[in-house]
Specification:
Elements (H helix, E strand, L loop, with lengths): L5 E4 L4 H11 L4 E4 L15 H16 L3 E10 L19 H11 L9 E11 L8 E11 L15 E3 L4 E2 L5 H7 L1 H13 L3
Parallel strand pairs: 1-2, 1-3
Antiparallel strand pairs: 3-4, 4-5, 5-6, 6-7
Helix pairs in contact: 1-5, 4-5
This protein binds inosine 5'-triphosphate and magnesium ion.
Inosine 5'-triphosphate binds next to strand 3 and helix 3.
Keywords: Hydrolase, Magnesium, Metal-binding, Nucleotide metabolism, Nucleotide-binding
Protein name: dITP/XTP pyrophosphatase
Family: Belongs to the HAM1 NTPase family.
Length: 198
């Protein structure tokens, strides 16, 4: 079992850092790779797993610390799983608001029953840059895409993601509630088990 006190998070996304640190608790300190470099690696993989490993190796190489990466996104049934690994780049890098507007447009006139979607999160942890055995944990969160944005919490696609088990959008959940049930929370439960943290 690994005894990890400090991990570098291979992400420039402040929303992820906040959620992951809250889920990990005080026993492990997460430091953003932004402390070392502002340059983001190109996400050239064809799967969440490949991109998560690529980001984790890059961060471990730059920082010299064990690294955790989160590759995540939204897979929409009607769109054959798109935007998927391209979720951050869906509107060509114009940001969350543009991504959400493009998604609403792509699903214009699509009835509720066909608006199913899942958030996906893959966490990859490497002990060092060339680690031959990364720890991989996956979490899925099933919901549906709304016809208009709702809610102020969270980040990214949260205002468009309807959470059936709570009858609210994921941006209407409190941060603590989202961290109990999200794709990221599910992946983190598995990671904590693998690290012997619970
Ligand atoms: O690669 P890093 O630096 O970690 O940051 P990123 O924001 O580019 O992250 P990804 O490449 O994993 O892309 C994830 C996309 O999916 C969205 N996403 C992931 N988790 C989400 C969540 O919990 N709520 C809303 N949107 C989420 C997010 O906004 C991005 O558009
Ligand atoms: Mg990214």
């Amino acid at each position: 079992m690994m005894n990890i006190k400090q991990l570098v998070l291979a992400s420039h996304n402040a929303g992820k850092l906040k959620e992951l640190q809250a889920m990990l608790g005080d026993s492990v300190q997460l430091r953003s790779i932004g402390e070392w470099s502002k340059v983001e690696p190109e996400e050239t993989g064809l799967s969440f797993v490949e991109n998560a490993i690529l980001k984790a190796r890059n961060a471990a190489r730059i920082s010299g610390l064990p690294a955790l990466a989160d590759d995540s996104g939204l897979a929409v049934d009607f769109l054959g799983g798109a935007p998927g690994i391209y979720s951050a780049r869906y509107a060509d890098g114009k940001g969350d608001a543009a991504n959400n507007a493009k998604l609403l447009d792509a699903l214009k006139d699509v009835p509720e029953a066909e608006r199913g979607a899942q958030f996906v999160c893959v966490l990859a942890l490497v002990r060092h840059a060339d680690d031959p055995l990364p720890i991989l944990c996956e979490g899925l969160w099933h919901g549906r895409i709304l016809t208009a944005a709702s809610g102020e919490h969270g980040f990214g696609y949260d205002p468009l993601f309807w959470v059936p088990e709570r009858n609210v959008s994921s941006a209407e959940l409190s941060p603590a509630d989202k961290n109990q049930i999200s794709h990221r929370a599910r992946a983190m439960v598995l990671l904590r088990q693998r690290l012997g943290l619970q």
